[in-house]
Amino acid sequence: MVVLFDQQQQAVLERNLRQAARSAVLDVERRIVADASMLRALAASPDVDKGDFEKLRDHMGRVIQRRPDWLSVQLIDPSTMEPVVSAAARSSLTPRLDTDLIRRTAESRLVEVSDLHSKHGEIPYHFAIALPVPRDGQFRYVMTAEIDAGSLGRVLAAETIDDDWGLGLLDRNRTLVAHSRADMDQIGKPAPPSLITELERAETEYFFTVDRGGQRLYGSYATSGWLDWVVAVGVPASVVEWPLRRTLFVVIGAGSGALATALLLATILIRAVSRRHDAERQLLALEAQQTIERRLADIAANLPGVVYRRVVHPDGTISHPYVSSGLERLLDISSDEVKQGLSLEEFAETYLAPDAREAWVRALSEASTSGNAYSYEAALLSRSGEVRWVHSMARSRRNADGSVIWDGVLRDITERKQVEQRLAASLAEKETLLREIHHRVRNNLQVVSSLLQLEIRALPDPHARERLNRVSQRIAVLGRVHDQLYSSENFARIDFAEHLHQICSNLRQIYQETREFDVDLTVDADRLYCEIDTAIPLGLMVNELVTNALKHGVSSTSGPGRIRI
After folding, report:
1. What is the mean pLDDT of residues 353-378?
2. Cα-flanking dihedrals φ and ψ of residue 86, to 5°?
3. How many CB atoms lie within 10 A of CB 327?
4. Contact 285, 24 (CB under 8 A)
5. Distance separating alpha carbons of residues 118 and 163, to the nearest angstrom
6. Is the sign of the CA dihedral 349, 354, 358, 359 positive or negative?
7. In the 8-state DSSP scheme, what is residue 402?
8. Which H helix or E strand runs over 50?
9. Which of 20-24, 33-37, 214-218, 373-377 has the least mean pLDDT?
10. CA–CA distance, 300 with 290 (Å, rounded to integer)
11. Taking the CA of residue 300 as centre, how many other CA atoms within 13 Å lie in the half-sphere pointing to its CB?
């Protein structure tokens, strides 16, 4: 029975050690992914594409201020291995150039993490993250961030383990990167040879080893598939073996009560094992959920836009429980800054351009009341005051407490808006130019017509005057086409029915002045739009036909005439 109890205790210890190591590896990966996401948001800054490296340096400085564990950020040209621009947490810090890390990143075009870097100058033990940076659609730079290794030590120290247990993080060289007990004297030293032997053997994740001080340890480890780093967890053998020895002494000394005691212990153990199995299932479910959340966060960070969750509360305040890191690229504003609760008016006053505030508040209020899908274009203000146009699309659902939850995305449409504004300005300029052209052509034709009229009055020959009158009428037809185009909103077409009325009215007036009889000239025409190349010859044809009808079809002897068109 004692042997069985010892084996069961060993199995429980083994599971607990493995779970502690795996949980710590996930938390370390999560922390490094968060740093990599922030670095990716910085690398996607429009300042990189614009080549505005002074502005990019200021952006780097603001990011370092918000990430106290970051020591420096550099943008490096891998072809020359020279930094293009860099920023450090303090002016006395000199960033380190890890050429091996830069070379690996340039070859893989993926996020890479260095092994532990030793202290130099005022820079403590640290590691570096690097990722490729495209420009104009082509790979051009590598951006790196040096991060204090103490940040990973705090991750390990936050793990839920017994006080006697210890967690250590080893890099690919099996050098100690961080420890849960903040034992800084051991950071940067290689792992004990016995531990390295167990890691290389890789027969099982559970092992027995000896530390540098000769203390015997029970241990386990978990390897990060992404980083190839190892988290090892250990507990002193004395902590594990003393309860077993005490149990053995009690069982032997109890004599006749051994069997009853063993049965009681077995019952307690079975219940403990059952509870442990339940805890293991919960832990596995939690790990699966955390893995999904980490993948979704990474996808959201890489999307060309901003993914957000907005909550409009019953009291009218607005909050954002989740905003992806794309907001940093878009507005140079961290997601934490927009999470606090503000009224709709306060939010609009802070983040929207003045001309867009009232319309945005009204649109969001109406959508929150109706529950319809939300699609809206608005002008936002970046930290520097630059206007960035976005298209927001979201769907809503209403909670039992009356709040409305919006899940949506923001797309940057600034370039599209700028193109539209340039096209609108160009179109207005061309419309003004065309209007001026038609105005000048009309005026020039009127001048020509006036000159002809002056010449007609000076001619004694009636036949010659009539010929020039007809020429003048044709010129007037051309002038009326340009006059209508000048007065119209459409410079490509004119209303030919209106043009027809003008031609006939003008001809009727001219012939009534020279004849002593009346003519009933009626035009019945539907609206018909013609292009200028069609309207001019049609107008000239109508002018000739109506002129001939007035001249030859009606006479003073036949009485009042009637012409219908």
Report:
1. 81
2. -150, 160
3. 23
4. no
5. 29
6. negative
7. S
8. helix 46-50
9. 214-218
10. 15
11. 24
